[in-house]
């Protein structure tokens, strides 16, 4: 494991205090924040216990808040609840029965709206549908869906009957789907004929057929939702249309009381090498953590219309499209498709049409919007927005400022939220009515979270080290499915425990500044060592992106006899820019000016796309293979567009 960045060269000192108009009405004020931090510090377990009692409905109280047998945590031991109850039933009695729960728009422009009462009804019916197929409490169910309301309903229906779901992103290949279904030993798969994405139908059911043809013996039933209407093959006895099953089942389905520690879902996340890890989350702690982070960080107010652009296939979709906002009784907007050449401004149009007030997206999307210029967003009325968020990667200060000025009109606080599939919810983030933000920093830990930056011995290393969490928290993953040893080795033994203190190892490099703000520099394997100087890919990329000709950049190291590693940059130019030798020289000089001579790229390759995961993370591992001229190795199942690799290869 290489050492993370020791010297950060990224200089970003601008400070953005919460806009006064926002701060005045915020849920968490500076006074409240101080109180909460004090409470959490004085009595961490009492803090979580109070929130669990006040914020969630429990069928049965717990006997013990936390049982911590490192690295095994159990929260709210003995307590019983149901996440679907907390997301639906309780809102029928607290005045939100006729409030809009979900507004959905499909890529072709079709719109559906469901009140809490209607969503509750649909979920109950879906849950009974699953029961009719033989699904029972404790079973695992695969979900391979487009971004349609039924994706959320399927998740909630599983939670309602106590079956654990494993959502597999609809863009993943049949191969990736097969691996995940096999590992989870799923008893059924919920899918759709297809979905709309970027002006085309993405076939889903045929991928399920392919995956199952390779043998996933545990799968007995496939429930198919009709979305696109294209012809699909149905295997008699195994495959059932939802629209045929639905009328035969009742819409009365009480929520099954579940143990707080009952498995809620498995979500697979790619490791650096080898097969994906099945991250396990359980019911009580996850519900509380998704709920309270969503409420405080997004400052959820009754009238908000909240849009998180993620897909339900990744953790952000789980915690901040479905469970967090619905548990709070919010109005969630959900969109089926993605920005595309025929409608590059569709996001801005949607914000204007649906009067979105909270908008949560990824840096990669922001950079793409930035690339297509200010004119598109300026054509739309974005005045409904009051809060912006980002997640998934460090955000380059350049992109942050663009988001702040062009999208937020300098009115909206930005919450840059650091967290992981493993953490269940946001761990480091501004609170929008409290925290003065700095572009590129996720700022401070959430109240009750003890984050730190340490070296491999566990000693504080604020100037540059590994991001760790020092205490268990309710939303933490419980294990790697069927592989507790991998759980221990990947997260709890990288930094050995010291004096009874365990360190959750996040795998990210970070540093803390003089105000205690965290600057996440990316995965620890994303560090380049040039002649002994450690450079974070993030700072190199930010330097490149700060040049007006550059839309996006990815930087990797290539083994170099003299320097240890040489810097290779893959660069996407802004619209209208031509890649030339003189521009290449100019960019190299620009990085030298921004960072220093040590950072001069040895090579700059112009490209039209970068290999990314479906959740928008650049797969630098593959770029490293390309830069080194070696073959592609390791798992590529999470790649969004396989064509990109081919094109990159040919460009060399
Ligand atoms: C939620 C999510 C987790 C990894 C994480 C880190 C990166 C996420 C970030 C961020 C800097 C942020 N990451 N948010 N880095 N600033 N605000 O993305 O989960 O898909 O599991 O990825 O993403 O490297 O370790 P997941």
UniProtKB/TrEMBL annotation:
<feature type="binding site">
    <location>
        <begin position="197"/>
        <end position="200"/>
    </location>
    <ligand>
        <name>CoA</name>
    </ligand>
</feature>
<feature type="domain" description="Acetyl-coenzyme A synthetase N-terminal">
    <location>
        <begin position="33"/>
        <end position="87"/>
    </location>
</feature>
<feature type="binding site">
    <location>
        <position position="545"/>
    </location>
    <ligand>
        <name>Mg(2+)</name>
    </ligand>
</feature>
<keyword id="KW-0007">Acetylation</keyword>
<comment type="similarity">
    <text>Belongs to the ATP-dependent AMP-binding enzyme family.</text>
</comment>
<dbReference type="InterPro" id="IPR025110">
    <property type="entry name" value="AMP-bd_C"/>
</dbReference>
<feature type="modified residue" description="N6-acetyllysine">
    <location>
        <position position="617"/>
    </location>
</feature>
<dbReference type="InterPro" id="IPR042099">
    <property type="entry name" value="ANL_N_sf"/>
</dbReference>
<feature type="binding site">
    <location>
        <begin position="416"/>
        <end position="421"/>
    </location>
    <ligand>
        <name>ATP</name>
    </ligand>
</feature>
<feature type="binding site">
    <location>
        <position position="534"/>
    </location>
    <ligand>
        <name>ATP</name>
    </ligand>
</feature>
<comment type="function">
    <text>Catalyzes the conversion of acetate into acetyl-CoA (AcCoA), an essential intermediate at the junction of anabolic and catabolic pathways. AcsA undergoes a two-step reaction. In the first half reaction, AcsA combines acetate with ATP to form acetyl-adenylate (AcAMP) intermediate. In the second half reaction, it can then transfer the acetyl group from AcAMP to the sulfhydryl group of CoA, forming the product AcCoA.</text>
</comment>
<protein>
    <recommendedName>
        <fullName>Acetyl-coenzyme A synthetase</fullName>
        <ecNumber>6.2.1.1</ecNumber>
    </recommendedName>
</protein>
<dbReference type="InterPro" id="IPR045851">
    <property type="entry name" value="AMP-bd_C_sf"/>
</dbReference>
<keyword id="KW-0547">Nucleotide-binding</keyword>
<keyword id="KW-0460">Magnesium</keyword>
<feature type="binding site">
    <location>
        <begin position="392"/>
        <end position="394"/>
    </location>
    <ligand>
        <name>ATP</name>
    </ligand>
</feature>
<dbReference type="Pfam" id="PF00501">
    <property type="entry name" value="AMP-binding"/>
</dbReference>
<keyword id="KW-0479">Metal-binding</keyword>
<dbReference type="InterPro" id="IPR000873">
    <property type="entry name" value="AMP-dep_synth/lig_dom"/>
</dbReference>
<feature type="domain" description="AMP-dependent synthetase/ligase">
    <location>
        <begin position="95"/>
        <end position="479"/>
    </location>
</feature>
<feature type="domain" description="AMP-binding enzyme C-terminal">
    <location>
        <begin position="539"/>
        <end position="617"/>
    </location>
</feature>
<dbReference type="GO" id="GO:0003987">
    <property type="term" value="F:acetate-CoA ligase activity"/>
</dbReference>
<feature type="binding site">
    <location>
        <position position="316"/>
    </location>
    <ligand>
        <name>CoA</name>
    </ligand>
</feature>
<dbReference type="InterPro" id="IPR020845">
    <property type="entry name" value="AMP-binding_CS"/>
</dbReference>
<keyword id="KW-0067">ATP-binding</keyword>
<feature type="binding site">
    <location>
        <position position="547"/>
    </location>
    <ligand>
        <name>Mg(2+)</name>
    </ligand>
</feature>
<dbReference type="Pfam" id="PF16177">
    <property type="entry name" value="ACAS_N"/>
</dbReference>
<keyword id="KW-0436">Ligase</keyword>
<feature type="binding site">
    <location>
        <position position="550"/>
    </location>
    <ligand>
        <name>Mg(2+)</name>
    </ligand>
</feature>
<feature type="binding site">
    <location>
        <position position="523"/>
    </location>
    <ligand>
        <name>ATP</name>
    </ligand>
</feature>
<dbReference type="InterPro" id="IPR011904">
    <property type="entry name" value="Ac_CoA_lig"/>
</dbReference>
<feature type="binding site">
    <location>
        <position position="508"/>
    </location>
    <ligand>
        <name>ATP</name>
    </ligand>
</feature>
<dbReference type="Pfam" id="PF13193">
    <property type="entry name" value="AMP-binding_C"/>
</dbReference>
<dbReference type="InterPro" id="IPR032387">
    <property type="entry name" value="ACAS_N"/>
</dbReference>
């Amino acid at each position: 494991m290489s050492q993370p960045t020791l010297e950060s060269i990224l200089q970003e000192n601008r400070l953005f205090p919460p806009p006064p108009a926002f701060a005045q009405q915020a849920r968490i004020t500076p006074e409240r924040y101080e109180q909460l931090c004090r409470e959490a510090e004085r009595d961490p377990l009492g803090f979580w216990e109070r929130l669990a009692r006040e914020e969630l409905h429990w069928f049965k109280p717990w006997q013990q808040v936390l049982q911590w047998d490192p690295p095994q945590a159990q929260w709210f031991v003995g307590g019983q609840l149901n996440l679907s109850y907390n997301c639906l039933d309780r809102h029928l009695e607290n005045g939100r029965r006729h409030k809009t729960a979900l507004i959905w728009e499909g890529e072709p422009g079709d719109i559906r709206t469901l009140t809490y009462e209607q969503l509750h009804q649909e979920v109950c019916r879906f849950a009974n549908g699953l029961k009719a197929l033989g699904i029972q409490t404790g079973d695992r169910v695969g979900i391979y869906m487009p971004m349609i309301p039924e994706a959320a309903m399927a998740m909630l229906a599983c939670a309602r009957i106590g079956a654990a779901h494993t959502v597999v992103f609809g863009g993943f290949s049949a191969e990736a789907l097969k691996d995940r279904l096999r590992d989870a030993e799923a008893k059924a798969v919920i899918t759709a004929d297809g979905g709309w994405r970027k002006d085309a139908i993405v076939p889903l059911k045929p991928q399920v057929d392919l995956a199952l043809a390779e043998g996933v013996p545990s799968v007995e039933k496939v429930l198919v939702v009709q979305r696109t209407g294209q012809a699909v093959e149905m295997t008699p006895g195994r495959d059932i249309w939802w629209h045929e099953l639905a009328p035969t089942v009742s819409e009365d389905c009480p929520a099954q009381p579940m143990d707080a520690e009952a498995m809620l879902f498995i979500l697979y996340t790619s490791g650096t090498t080898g097969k994906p890890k099945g991250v396990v989350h359980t019911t009580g702690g996850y519900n509380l953590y998704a709920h309270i982070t969503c409420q405080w960080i997004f400052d959820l107010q009754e009238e908000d219309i909240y849009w998180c652009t993620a897909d339900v296939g990744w953790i952000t979709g789980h915690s901040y499209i479905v469970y967090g906002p619905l548990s709070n009784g919010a109005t969630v907007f959900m969109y089926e498709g993605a920005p595309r050449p025929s409608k590059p401004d569709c996001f801005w149009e949607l914000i204007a049409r649906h009067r979105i007030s909270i908008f949560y997206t990824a840096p990669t999307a922001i950079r793409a919007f930035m690339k297509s210029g200010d004119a598109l967003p300026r054509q739309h009325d974005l005045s409904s927005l009051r809060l912006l968020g980002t997640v998934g990667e460090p955000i380059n200060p350049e992109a942050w400022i663009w988001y702040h000025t062009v999208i937020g009109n300098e009115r909206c606080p930005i919450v840059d939220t650091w967290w992981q599939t493993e953490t269940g919810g946001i761990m480091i983030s501004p609170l929008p009515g409290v925290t003065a933000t700095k572009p590129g920093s996720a700022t401070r830990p959430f109240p009750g979270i003890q984050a730190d930056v340490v070296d491999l011995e566990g000693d504080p290393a604020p100037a540059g080290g590994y991001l760790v969490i020092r205490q268990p928290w309710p939303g933490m993953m419980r294990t790697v499915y069927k592989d507790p040893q991998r759980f221990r080795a990947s997260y709890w033994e990288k930094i050995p425990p010291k004096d009874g203190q365990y360190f959750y190892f996040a795998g990210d490099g970070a540093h803390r500044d003089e105000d205690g703000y965290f600057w996440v520099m990316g995965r620890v394997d994303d560090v380049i060592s040039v002649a002994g100087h450690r450079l974070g890919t993030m700072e190199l990329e930010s330097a490149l992106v700060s040049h007006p000709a550059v839309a996006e950049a990815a930087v990797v190291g290539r083994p170099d006899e003299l320097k240890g590693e040489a810097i290779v940059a893959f660069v996407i130019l802004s619209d209208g820019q031509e890649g030339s030798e003189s521009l290449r020289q100019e960019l190299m000089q620009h990085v030298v000016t921004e960072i220093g001579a040590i950072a001069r790229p040895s090579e700059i390759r112009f490209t039209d796309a970068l290999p990314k995961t479906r959740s928008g993370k650049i797969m630098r591992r593959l770029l490293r293979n390309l830069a080194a001229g070696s073959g592609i190795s390791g798992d590529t199942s999470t790649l969004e567009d396989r064509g990109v690799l081919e094109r990159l290869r040919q460009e060399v």
